[in-house]
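Allow me, if you will, to draw on your knowledge of protein folds for a short while. Thank you for your consideration; the sequence and its C-alpha cells are set out here:
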Amino acid sequence: MTRSYIVAYVDYHVLNILAKSSPENPEESKDWQAIHNIWKYFKEENIRLVTCGDDTEIDIISWLNKQGCCVSDTLMVTEAIEEFEQWGKVDKNIIGQYKKVLEYLEEIEALPMIAGDYSTGKDFTSIADPDKRLLSLLSEEILSPVKKGPDAGSVVDEDYTILRDCLKDLDRWVTEDNWNDLRLIDYQLNWDVLMSALVHYDIEPVFEGKGGERNRNLFGLLNRVIGFSKKSCPTLPMGENHIDFVINTVMRKYNYRKGEREARHIFHCIKHHVGFFLTTDFGLIELFNQRKHVLQEYPEFSSIKLEIIRPSVLEHQALKGSEG
C-alpha cells in the first residue's frame, strides 16, 4: 500500500473536536471519527499536520475565555485551566478536553509566523507589498461577509448593561484584601455577582451546556473586567466613566472580528504552500468556496490552490482515495 504525503493545516475547531471523548451530536459524528482516523495517520507519519502555533493559541485563549476560564496575562494557559478546575463547578470531562486541546497543539508542527506587520483594514488595491496585499484581499474581499457580522461571542446591549451593573455593585461583594490581590481570580465570588445580575434581568443563571453559552461568555468577560479593574482602580466603588473604560478595553481586546482571524490562518496556509485547511467551521468553508474565485482575478494569486474542507471530506477524498 502506498499513500501520497498530504499536508493539512488544522484550526482550533478541529483540535476541540479531537479532544472530545465522544461526539456531541450526529452532525459532529462523522468529523469526530474522521479526525481521530487522521490523527492515527499523523502518528504513523502518513500525513503531516501543521498549524500556526501563535495564532492558533490566541484562538484557543479566546475560546477558553468564552467558556468562563480566565486566561490572564500573568498565567500560562495550562495554569489558568488548573485554577478554573479548582473552582469545582465545571465537569472534569470538560476540563480534560481543555487540557487535551493544548496537548494536541504541542504535538502538531508549528509553522513560523510570517515576519512583519500584516494588519488589515487598508484598501488592498493600494498595497504594494504582496504579502500585505494578499492578507488584505483575504480579509476585505473574500471573507468580508464574516468580518462584517458579529462574532458569536460578541456582547449585545443588554450584556453590556449587565456587566456595568456587576461592576457598580462590586463594593458590596469584594473585600479589601480580595481587591488588592491583583493575581486572584475568585471564580465563586465573580459567579455570585453575575448570578445576582442575571436574576435581576430574568435570565436563568445556568452555566452548563448549550443553554449556558451566553452566561459563560458573560462570565469570561466579567472575570477579565474585574481583573483589569483591580489594576486600574485602587479602591471601590468605581466611577461610571471608569466602568465604561474597563468594559470597552476588555471587549476590544478579547472580542475580535472573526473574519480577520480566519484570514490570518488562510494566509499562513498559502505562504507555507499547504494544500488543505481542516476546519469544522462550515460557514467559513462555504464562504471561501463561494468567494475563492476572487483570487483568480489577480495574476499574482491565480496559481493559489487551497482547499478548506472538513475532516470527513479529507479522509474520504484524499486519504482513502490515495490508498492502493
Summary: The chain has two domains: 6-149+259-322, 157-254. The chain has 15 helices and five strands. The mean pLDDT is 88.
